Amino acid sequence: MISGNNIKKSFLFLSLLLTALFLLTSVFSGCSINDMKNKLGYLVKTEPEKTVIDFLNALSTKRPETIYDDFLKTEDKNNISREKFINELNVILNDIEDIDIGNTVYLGYEKEFAKVVCEFNVSYVNGEMKEYKKYIYLLEENKSWKIVFDKTFF
Fold this sequence. Notes:
This protein has 154 residues and is an alpha+beta fold. The protein has helices spanning 4-28, 33-43, 47-60, 64-71, 74-79, 82-93, 149-153, and strands at residues 96-110, 113-124, 129-141, 144-147. A hairpin with a 4-residue loop joins strand 2 and strand 3 (129-141). The longest helix has 25 residues, at 4-28. The radius of gyration is 21 Å and the shape is elongated.
């Protein structure tokens, strides 16, 4: 007969074994310490900061369709077609090699907008590299954060 105590010990052993396997897999999967720090750091960010990070990652990986679908307010989508937005953003992204995100800090609200300051480096295809510090404004729409492009970039 199996006792409750044996089941608890078996469950604890299995949990420890799975945790150890998970840690070993992540260590030997090619993840660097910085990658692991970034992933852990992402988990403790505010939702507006996560949105900014995801937005910059979409820019860096040249996914204008994701930017249109996930980060554009409905009002802005009503003012520009998806195809035109993607075409115009692709023209800009053609000059960018990579975007390296440094630090993001949630600054709270400014009027009705959430405000995040972000430091990042942009490497251009011509070899030029520039450092930026940008205030990015966000608005919550249908329980997700959207970039307020007109306030942020114009």
